[in-house]
Amino acid sequence: MSETRTQRQVHPSVLLVILCTAAFMSTLDVFIVNVGLRSIGTDVHDASLADLSWVLNAYAIVFSALLVPAGRLGDRSGNKRAFLIGLALFTLGSLGCSLSGDLWLIVGLRCVQAVGAAALIPTSLGLILTAMPVERRALSVRIWAVTGSLGAAAGPAIGGLLVQVSWRWIFLLNVPIGVAAFVAAALLVPGVRHGTETRVPDLLGGVLLMAAVAALALALVQGPGWGWASGRTLAAFALAVLATLAFVARSSRVASPVIDLGLFRNPVFAWANIAMVLLSISFGAQLLGLVFWLQEGWGWSAVRTGLGIAPGPVMVSLTGLGLRRWIARLPANVAAAIGALLMGGGGVLIGASLTAHGRYASEILPGWLVIGTGVGLAMPTIIGAASSGLAAHQTSTGSAVVQMGRQIGSVLGVALLVVVIGSSTITVDKLHRFVDAWWWAGLFALLGLVSVLSMRPRRPDSVATASSQVAEPAI
User: Fold this and answer.
1) Do 371 and 432 share a structural domain?
2) Which of 178, 182, 340, 454 is least surrounded by CB atoms within 10 angstroms?
3) Are residues 119 and 33 located together in one domain of the fold?
């Protein structure tokens, strides 16, 4: 009774700010460290680029691997409890990174951050879908999705500014925000629970899933360095395939699987996940490729690079929120398809315009604004469509599956970029390779367009009315 009273007294906007702040922090940290790697390497005794890459890779691997198990545990034990635990771990890991002077200790603490982030993403969406008033849920989901996209795209911009003071501020920034969000969530977020089952999700299945995602991510991020045909890379890919097959076989038999495979009988959910992976491949290559080119190809500073990236995330927010009424009138697959088309078209525009002369306003800005508009249209729509037909007790798990696809797609996009350009360092004489990378990103955006066209909701306004469907059983 007290939880219901608390939920009524707290203004929905306050709840949304708390939950979106946590989501922003966790997605921000996937990308914010990119522009600070060189400063970290200098501070920890000139570590090699291969060693420094683990500051990024460790976070990506653990984050991807734990998203679904964390969401499943949130559905079973209560989203608020899992959310608070995740926020505490993320904040403590950030504090540790900011104080550390040893590279491998930073890598270990980045894993702690990733564990916390993996809990924050699915539980924050789960709390929105269960704690927000019914009439505000559809808009809240869109705001949450835009916040996540903004955090991912704004990472280089914010990181570039903070690195000018010290790379430690990249991590230290999270501490006061995390503490404030933890206190606010503990006091104000209602602890709503929808599941009555008390069985612990299949632990062995969870281990198999983590092994599959971790092995895949390891093969992708290390493949360029190890060699794609090397024994280590092939072994990692083989482990990923075997663990995936074992996970599917076990999940089809146990009473309480980590992922209910029945979720994928919902065609909207299944196609939304495919589209999310493909579009994330495109955007992952575009975003990191742009950071590389501005810094290495044109020789821009971290601050200038961050400011050059900033217009894209601004368009993500303006589109996702400013055009929401227009988007709500469209079928979900049409709105997402327009977004995918803009993502690919913007990349093609940059690829066709780019030269070695550094004319940002004419060569990059127009295409980057188009890409930001496409992301603002496509990503929130896909997330909303994927969640629209799930039962309340499946929301955290379902959202975690979508976000896992997003992270795997991002890792694939980075691997695609490295394969095409041949090196993590871009110089002007490699312009043609960089242009090729934009063409490849456009191809994956086109494949994403085909996928979202198959994402046909039961009603044209399914995303706009997602809040009224979250309590219905999944198809």
Assistant:
1) yes
2) 454
3) yes
